[in-house]
Amino acid sequence: MSGAPVREPGAGGAPVRVLVCDDQMLVRTGLVTIIGAQPDMEVTGECADGRAAVDLAAKVRPDVVVMDVRMPVLDGIEATRLLAGSRVRDPVKVLVVTTFNLDEYVYEALRAGASGFLLKDAPPDRLLHGIRTVASGAALLDPEVTRQLVGRYASRIRPSDGGDREIPLTPRELEVLRLIADGLSNSEIAAALVISQETVKTFVSRILSKLHLRDRVQAVVYAYRRGLVN
Question: Is 35 in contact with 20 (CB distance < 8 Å)?
Answer without folding.
Answer: yes
